[in-house]
Amino acid sequence: xxxxxxxxxxxxxxxxxxxxxxxxxxxxxxxxxxxxxxxxxxxxxxxxxxxxxxxxxxxxxxxxxxxxxxxxxxxxxxxxxxxxxxxxxxxxxxxxxxxxxxxxxxxxxxxxxxxxxx
Length: 118
What we know:
By secondary structure, the protein is mainly α. Helix content is about 70%, strand content about 10%. It folds into two domains: about 60 residues, Up-down Bundle (Methane Monooxygenase Hydroxylase, Chain G, domain 1); about 50 residues, 2-Layer Sandwich (Ribosomal Protein S8, Chain: A, domain 1), CATH 3.30.1370.150. It has a three-stranded antiparallel beta sheet, with no helix packed on it. α1 packs antiparallel against α2. It is rod-shaped, with a radius of gyration of 22 Å.
């Protein structure tokens, strides 16, 4: 399961627990209030850990790409035939500015990163 889906599932479980906590609070059931409070805290910790791991991986990938010796914007003609570009330049990584990685790199255009000039 991807981290994004796992975070979404945990958030859904937190939401359910919060609704059950409200119901237990209205009934003044102390054992259930305590149980759901602990469950919510546990789930929130898991979400925080997953988000931290996700940002760590993103920063690691951003660092690897920014350390590549050559990068330049990809022209519209090259974007139209991406397969030919990837065959011509082995190991090229193309990043779109609207993806998480593109936003982390703060690029404005579709950019290619490679070990050698292309």
